[in-house]
Amino acid sequence: MIRAENITKRFGGREVLKNVSASFEPGKTNLIIGKSGSGKTVFMKCLVGLLDIDEGSIWYDDVLFSKLDFAAKKEIRKEMGMLFQGSALFDSMTVEENVRFPLDMFTTMSYSEKLDRVNFCLHRVNIIDSNSLFPSELSGGMKKRVAIARAIALKPRYLFCDEPNSGLDPKTSIVIDALIKEITSELNMTTVVNTHDMNSVMENGEKIVFIEEGEKCWEGSKNEILKSDNRLLNEFVFANALAKQLKDSVK
Amino acid sequence: MLRFLSGFASYWMLLGKVFSRPEKVQIYYNQTMKELMGLGIRSIGIVAIISFFMGAVITLQTAYNTENPIYPTYLIGLGCRDSILLEFSSTIVALILAGKVGSNIASEIGTMRVTEQIDALELMGVNSASYLILPKVVATLVFNPFLTLISIIVGIVGGWIAGTSSGVITSQDFVYGIQYAFIPYYITYAIIKTLVFAFIITSVSAFQGYYVEGGSLEVGRASTKAVVYSSVTILLFNVILTQLLLS
Q1: From CA B237, how far away is CA B230, in angstroms rounded?
Q2: Of A6, A32, A158, B77, which sits most exposed with the smallest number of CB within 10 A?
Q3: DSSP B64-84
Q4: B chain contacts of residue A104, beta-carbon cutoff 8 Å
Q5: H or E segment at B220?
Q6: Alpha-carbon Rg of chain A, whole angstroms?
Q7: Element (H, E) at A29
Q8: Dist CA A150 CA B120 (whole Å)
Q9: Please, are residues A65 and A76 in contact by the beta-carbon 8 Å criterion?
Q10: CA distances for B105 relative to A158, A191, B202, angstroms
Q11: Whole-angstrom Cα distance, residue B105 to residue B199?
Q12: What residues form DSSP beta bridges with A87?
């Protein structure tokens, strides 16, 4: 369980997150939704500790993560995996080396054990016979899947995905969404996904936090979205005509 | 002024992170070997070519400026040796490497920053500054003295070939000149300067790349800044070291 309590984050004088509180449950795909520039990525970077918060607190189970020093945060970070918006695969390493990197860094496994784990993770994300390819030789969807394989190599307890569908076609996006959902339930991870993709919301939204202009405006599930009267949420989720019709038919 | 002081403080804070204890020594060792290849061995060609021609030009210019019969011709060899030992192989080669290696380091690390690869390292719990910069610093500190020695040898050979083939000096006089009144300390002096310059090139360039914000345009700017700042710092330290080591 991850809990964020009254998070405020400022850049210079500009308040990007205003008193945001949310909790994310294990075994579920928790979504943070909101339009571009609403503060989703900043919120996620605060959650994982890549950005320091100005006010509030972040808890990982019973540990007050936001007050830990660098060394103590490092221990919790070893239990985190993250899929970045641009995949963030290491350009100078092959697919295999990318997935093996956290194992090389933090385990005492033998080379063959590491290779088994790498192949298992790559197989799990349906990447086969691509161990020796470099990131520049992969398609966008393959990069995302390799990044997921790297993120789960150390069997993390927490998985963070920042815009996992950005730059992908709708079909590949559905594959990535399904993969994240399956892996979350298999490993019983606490997964937090930043998205503004409505397919993801409707497929994976077991718990949804809606952020607008740095403030949390709504919290609920995908079923509750259809019945919500929150104007800002409805304007965001049901922005196109087809979605409006769906909403009306539910009403 | 405030911006300069804040940048200076950030530089020292980055160095503090760079020289903290490595997570896994074996991985750092492997990275250092890779950097030795990328930053060191791949620089031999350019250093050798430039040293050869600089040695040749130094010899010819010394010859044309000492045509007076009062001066013995072996002074051409001596002039070539001392110019290369004292200034060219350490300072000029360092300025060339600031262009080649410095821009390479800044653009590599800067690209990793803007494509979130550094964030990915940090999130895994890896000290990204140490992992990315320490192997580069160690590799250049280990290899650049060899580049300097290669530069000295190739430069003198270039001078000898240019001098003898153009007929401005005989081979015998040139060899006598490079042996005449030789001070071995000059080699130590060149190596000390090379070590300081190697540290400046890698640390200043890595600093420029590590704190890039934005996109490809900013990475390009960081790369340019890396070359300019490390070159200016090298020239400044050249004066300080010359005063300290030769006075």
Answers
A1: 10
A2: A6
A3: HH--STTS-THHHHHHHHHHI
A4: 24, 27
A5: helix B216-246
A6: 18
A7: strand A29-33
A8: 10
A9: yes
A10: 33, 35, 7
A11: 13
A12: A84
**Cβ–Cβ below 8 Å for A88 and B116:** yes
Which residues of B, range 103-132, sit inside 8 Å of A by Cβ?
Answer: 111-112, 115-117, 119-120, 122-126
Given an 8 Å threshold on Cβ–Cβ distance, is B116 in contact with A85?
Answer: yes
Tokens of B199: 């540290």
Whether residues A80 and B122 touch (CB distance < 8 A) is answered with no
Residue A84 DSSP symbol? B
pLDDT in tens, chain B (247 residues): 788 888 889 999 999 999 988 888 899 999 999 999 988 999 999 999 999 999 999 999 999 988 888 888 899 999 999 999 999 999 999 999 999 999 999 999 999 999 999 999 999 889 999 999 999 999 999 999 999 999 999 999 999 999 999 999 999 999 999 999 999 999 999 999 999 999 999 999 999 999 999 899 999 999 999 999 999 999 999 999 999 998 7
The bridge status of strand A158-162 relative to strand A190-195 is parallel
State the helix-helix crossing angle for B74-83 and B44-65, rounded to 10 degrees: 140
- In this structure, what token pair is assigned to residue B127? 């000290």
Query: From the list B27, B117, B123, which residue is nearest A80 (CB)?
Result: B123
Residue with tokens 């290899």: B143
Token pair 């070893």 in the structure block, residue? A78
Q: Does the distance separating the beta carbons of B119 and A85 come in below 8 Å?
A: no
Q: What tokens does B202 get?
A: 């890698």
